[in-house]
Every structure is written in C-alpha cells, then in structure tokens.
Specification:
The structure is a homodimer.
Chain A: H1 4-15, E1 19-22, H2 32-38, H3 46-64, E2 70-74, H4 76-79, H5 82-98, E3 102-109, H6 113-123, E4 127-128, E5 133-134, E6 141-144, H7 154-163, E7 166-172, H8 179-182, E8 185-186, E9 189-190, H9 191-202, E10 215-219, H10 224-233, E11 239-241, H11 251-254, E12 265-269, H12 271-274, H13 276-279, H14 285-303
Parallel strand pairs in A: 1-2, 1-12, 2-3, 3-6, 6-7, 7-10, 10-11, 11-12
Antiparallel strand pairs in A: 4-5, 8-9
Helix pairs in contact in A: 3-5, 3-14, 6-7
Chain lengths: ~300, ~300
C-alpha cells in the first residue's frame, strides 16, 4: 500500500520545499480592505467571520499551492467560531485536497481506546453507518497527544494500516513551557525521549517506501539541540516541525531535524505567511504570502546546503 | 464571582447525585426500533445519523435531567459524523443547558499559548469579532491535556477568571495503558503526581466558595489507590472521575476520590446509561436509562455511607 507519508515525501521532492503552510486563520489576520470587501457591513457574526476566513484560505491556497507540498489546518481557529467555523474548517480541508496538497489537521486529539477509535474514524479512516460508511473529514494526517499511552494510539494505527493515512504524535513541542513536563528525567531519559521511543515503536509496522513511518512526531523548531538529538534517536520517524517564523525559529535552527539527505521533516509556518502582508505593505496579501513562502523555502534550502 | 464549580457542587447537593451522564452517543447505541422510527428508510448518511443521535440525546435528557447535576459531552462521537455531527454536538450542549445542567465538554484540548487561547475562547470564554463578541459553545467546563505545560494552560485560566467557567486537566486517566507514561517515576514522584501538583498550582487563584478550584483534574475510577492518594494530595482540586460502568469501576472503587464530606468529585458513566436498554429489555430506553442513573446514584451513595 502507498502511505500518505510516501506521497508527502514525493511532493516535498517535487516542490523542493519541505514545508507546510499553517492555515491558522483568524479574522484579525485579514487585511482590513479585504475584510471590508467581503463583509461591507462589518463582521458582526460568527457566520460572517467564518465566511471571510474561508475565502481568505481559498485565495491564499490559489496564491501558493504550486510552491508547497502540504498545509496544516489548526482546528482551534475554526472551533472558536463555533458551528460556522467548523463549516469553514471542513471546506478548507476540501479546497486544499482539491489542489493536490497533503492535508495535516492539527487537532492534537487524545482519549481512551473506544473514544480514540471515534477520533480515528473522524480524521484517518471512515465512519460506519447502519447503511454504508462515509468520511467525516478528508484529512491525510492528524496530530495526536500521547499522554494516555498505547491504547489511546492503537485505533489510529489500525486506520493507518487500512487507509494509509498517518499521525504526528507530540514529542517535544515548540512552546516556551514545553520543558515543564517534557524535559523531566525518567531514569536516564527525558519524558520526551520516552515518548519519542514509544512513537518509534508504534510506527514500526507502517514504514513506507522511503524509510519513514506513517507514525511521525511533532518536534518544535524552537529547540534545535533536542531536534538534532531526536533525529539521530528516531531514524524512521518523520518530523512535523512547528515554530518557524512567528515563534522565532529560522532555517539554521531546524536543520538538525533533517536527515543527511535533507529529508525526514516538514516545517510549518502559519502567522508569518498568513500575515505576510504586514511585512510587505507594497504587495497585496497573495503576493506577500507567495514571497514569504519562497523566502522560507530558500532559507531552509540554504540551511540544508541545497542551494 | 460565582464559579461554575460552585454551581456544580450545589447541583450535586440538590440532587444527592455526584454524577454526570456521558453523552457519548453513537448510532450503534440506539435501539433498532427507535432508529427505524426516526429514519424509516435506514441511516445511510451522516445527516441522518446525526439527526437520530441528537433526538436520542434530547429524549434521554428529558428522561433523567431531574435526577442529575451535569452531563459530559464527548466530542469525538460527534466529530466522527463530520459537520452534521458537530451540529448535533452544539445543539446537545444547548439542550442540556436549557435543562439547567452543568455541561462539561470532553474535548481534551491542548496546544501552544496562542492556540490554547483560541480553544479557550471556543469553550470557556467568548470569541471577539471585529464588531462585538459571541460564544462558540455554551459549555461550562472543558477537559484539557497538560502535556504542553503551563503556557498551554494559562489562556484557560484567564477565561476562568473572567467568565467563572472551569477545566478538568488529565492527571491519571482511566484506560489500561494510562501507566505507560503517567506512572513512570520522575525523581520521587510519578508523572501523574507531577502533573497533579501542577494542576493544583494552576488552580490556586480560582478556589470557589466551597473550597474547590475551577481547575479540576481527571482521575480515572479504574485506579482506586491512585484516586485515594490524589484526593489527599490535592485537597482543593475537584475530580472528574471517568471509568464507572462499562469501563469496570463500581461505587466502592471510587469512594477514595471523594473527601470526608462525600464531596469533591463527579463520576461519569456513558455507555452503561446510553445502552441501559440492553440490560433492561423489559423497559423502554428512557425508563432503562432512568433506572441505571438511580442505581448508579444509590451505588455511590452507599459506598460513601450516605444511605
């Protein structure tokens, strides 16, 4: 079976760009003139906010889809707009899929076995109905939280085996307080090393044709040393690397997350691309986003010695 | 300010019933005759499944609302039905609120600060719009995962302070593999003790009039010794206790989660109530659910020496 992780790797090779654009779109991130053109009477309801966000996502996808292999859609920014936001979420996933992009839904789901099964059906597999079955969301990957241990992960592994989709489990997150729990020592290992080893173990039956498993890890770009160390420790685990751009990391900081061929990771940037128009006032938001995507691609290529 | 945790405690006192009914409703849990009456042509779409689930929730709420202080709505079982499921989710929350029940949304959300802020707006606070603000979901409490440490929790604390809502953070979960990470030793403490102490610290500024904080903990009923130990360790932390019924725990197993007054915890049961009709074939599903709610109430009261 072809895993989505293989397809992601192929798309990264084709674009020469190991990144995803994070569609963490909030109504505050939209240029005022754009917002006014979509909602001339002002955004005074969840419905109007969600409508503006969806249109922005579509315009942004049209502007950068040819340059990138994947997008990451952070569901929190849609849940905050309630049901109308969720409509925009599912439609955004569809629009990205329609442009041949790998879609990672950043949902960080986690629960006990029976409930993890429901989450897995929602994002990696399909939902059984008394008559037939249907997909709830067209995503290729979902992020998951490993705090509940293996039986909260097994249902995802089952859907990975039958649908070829994948997960990225939190190992070392990009936020300032990630060390509060993740860096503590359990015997000779840190918590994140223990979790990293579990993630590697969970992924051993779904290694694709390029040597990377459909069970990946989230490793924050803001902790370069830990990224380098985890890359060596987990040779078959593909990394989703957040923290580039607005969170402070640069190409140099994350090169340790890549293997010796310059593969094995996909780097996310959200705000720096969504709000690129603030940095480039001479451009419209589409041109600005495109310029930032290219700058990020070149920055990473340069750090990897590829240009 | 009145905290929702105070209101929950008052509702528990009034009903003499420290439980919540878990609305983890899947279409498979509905009696066939009931499903046929709602969807005579069969359930062949997400829309029909979600419609049947919502109606079941409403009927169940009507059957048991006078006996219980609260419900817990597990969002995974709605996400698996996609956008139609999410419609049923938001409506279920509304229906429960309309019956004066405390609503805990079991979402186990977690992310970095900026994103946790969006989740907090979604479930505990409100969403700012360019003109005005609105609530995305009418919930009183949300469950959260602590793996990212303090800055993933702070946004929730801010909304707790301004809206009086609350959270339950995962400490010791009810599933079989919860010990895989949670029971490991960090120096002299287990991971779950470290997390429990953090939760207690996070909650110290939101202790309500009955001595319990709006920042609570999830402590699984399936680990009685750990529950007893955590109760002593965290005297101001209210516990949400899953694992009763279908997961195997009984009243005796969870009495250690309560304080010496028989307070300080709310026990959830989902499948044993949703599917009570399977156990009581002589009753309709509403009577059966009511019988199970009463049996659970009495079982816990007996374990607490209250009847």
């Amino acid at each position: 079976m072809k895993f989505q992780i293989d397809l992601l790797i192929e798309r990264i090779r084709k674009t020469g760009n190991p990144t995803c654009v994070g569609l963490d779109t909030r109504v505050e991130y939209l240029p005022k003139a754009y917002l006014d053109s979509i909602c001339p009477d002002g955004v005074d309801s969840m419905e109007k906010a969600a409508q503006a966000i969806l249109q922005y996502n579509i315009d942004l996808l049209d502007a950068v889809a040819d340059l990138i292999p994947s997008v990451k859609v952070q569901v929190a920014y849609y849940e905050m707009y309630g049901l109308e936001g969720m409509k925009a979420f599912y439609q955004t996933v569809k629009e990205a899929k329609a442009r041949n992009l790998t879609v990672i839904v950043d949902v960080k789901r986690n629960d006990i076995g029976a409930t993890a099964e429901a989450y897995s059906a929602a994002y990696l597999g399909e939902t059984s109905l008394p008559k037939g079955a249907a997909r709830a969301c067209e995503s290729d990957f979902a992020t998951v939280n490993p705090y509940l241990g293996e039986d909260g992960i097994k249902p995802f592994l089952k859907d990975i085996a039958s649908h070829g989709t994948g997960i990225f489990a939190l190992v070392k997150t990009s936020n300032p307080s990630s060390g509060q729990l993740q860096d503590l020592m359990i015997g000779e290992k840190t918590v994140y090393q223990v979790v990293g080893d579990l993630v590697s173990e969970w992924g051993k039956d779904s290694i694709g044709e390029y040597g990377y498993s459909a069970v990946g890890a989230v490793v924050g770009a803001t902790y370069p040393e830990q990224g380098t160390e985890l890359r060596k420790r987990l040779p078959h685990t593909f990394f989703l690397v957040p923290g580039y751009g607005a969170q402070g990391a640069k190409g140099e900081d994350l090169k340790g997350c890549f293997d010796e061929k310059g593969e094995g990771a996909v780097v996310n940037a959200s705000r720096s691309i969504l709000c690129a128009w603030k940095k480039h006032p001479e451009m419209d938001f589409k041109q600005a986003a495109r310029a930032e995507v290219i700058a990020m691609r070149d920055d990473i290529a340069s750090a990897l010695g590829k240009n």
